[in-house]
Amino acid sequence: MQMKSWQEVAQRAQTYRDQTIAEISPTVPDAPADLPQNVTQLPSQLLSPREVELTGMVPEEILAALSTGKLSSVEVTNAFLRRAGLAQRLVNCVTEVMVLKALERARYCDEYRAKTGKPLGPLHGLPISVKEHIGMKGLNQNCGFIAWADRVAPEDALILTLLHNAGCVFYARTTEPQCLMHLETASNLYGVTVNPYNRSLTSGGSSGGEGALLGLRGSCLGIGTDIGGSIRSPAANCGV
To answer: Which of 15, 186, 221, 235 lies in disulfide reach of 240, CB 3.0 to 4.6 Å?
Structure first.
């Protein structure tokens, strides 16, 4: 069997990512052909006022509204899916979105709230993004290596199990640098994740996909990992 080139492996991963974004409805708007250096204002111009309102809320506000039934998790999750899809087109920060699973989980949260009159847990219906390095059962866990592109996590990481049990909705996975140990987010699989405030600069690393996504409000709460600055660097670089 002929070995695939690294470019073919990378193209397959990127095509899969783009296919997951294409599942978002309504369709995610295209980014302008001539992007400005600072793209932080584009979501408010390209998304609906309602989506901008929802994705502009802080987690505490969203949770308060979700837990009382003032907001539905389906509506909130779909707003963040659309904004995350747009963020990918602006700064290259997402490896996949999980549209069907996320909306199924969001519907479950809404139905549970309607039937019982109480939230599923302290994170009831809240959309949360996750760095790709963190194991999610059945999905890729490649550490940014071309050679590991087909590796999948055998089980969920403990932190995901805890958050799921608390009632959250996982909807997007984000970029990481090859081997993780880098204060810039770049790999042969997905290329370079750039800074939403200045696309000529880095988003930081290794949780740079999370930093860039949160910087563009494509997520209200994201999970990264940090040994030597891998959350602190992107948080600082992206104004989080």
So the answer is: 235
